[in-house]
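# nightly structure sweep
# worker-07 picked up a monomer target from the shared queue
# config: single-sequence mode, recycle default, output format = structure tokens
# input follows
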Amino acid sequence: SDSFDGRAEARILGMAIPNILIGFTLFAVIMFRGKKTYSKKYWKFCLPLSMPLIFHGLSQIILSQADKIMLQKFTTGEIVGIYSFVVTFTHLINVIWLAFNNTWVPFYFDDMKNRNVENIKKKTKNYVFLFTGIVCGFMLVSPEVAKLFVSSEFWGGINLIPIFSVCMYMVFLYSFPVNFQFFYNRSLNIAIGTGLSAVLNIVLNFILIPRFGMYGAAIATLIAYISLFAFHQFIARYIIGRAYHFGYKDYWASMLFVAGNVALAYCLQGYWYARWVIAAGIGIVLVARIVKNKKLF
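# output follows
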């Protein structure tokens, strides 16, 4: 309807205008202070690094939005609404990861610069242990927490929360090979890996959504995010041409633990107290480890 189109345009403009104004303002300030608009040295360094990241960003948008768009085509607005709520709710894990990643990267790059591989492995072990516990605890308590935010009409999508929790966990795991690629300025490889996952996601959505609805979209997204990690792990280990310090075997224990908690989340759906006790136990172990180490990583 016309009113709907108006609301959509208002939403787009409301997001775009502040970003454009702030962006141009910062650009003008930087140009004024720098008093120089062109440096061959910096342009030669920045353009090959940044241009592929545009396609990396577009591929990430496709990964996060293609399922909703295709659900709208093959199903109903009601299903899209339920599905979108679950995606938004589990995105909290991604917010936590972004905060951790912003803290992690400076330490990681310093250790890479100093070739302190043993320190990297030690910190990574602590980091993976911490984030694995957070994801597992989240999926165990999330059904009851999610019900606090929405009416019963949306509760049908709560079964998808463990699946999307694993998707967010794959994003966490893929950050290790991606940060390795960033360190060596291999942004083109990053764009290729993410682009392949985006294409796979679209193909799987076309196959699975008409047959299984929002569950098909969730499975397609899960497979795409697993491939995202696998592609970037392969690139870091075999394409970059540098000694990458992590193999697939370094992640098996944590991935199996997450898979076990997914099974618990589904098997104990009707036993909220059991799930919450397990989640509390995970939380106690995490806090005790942090207190013992006196640091997150």
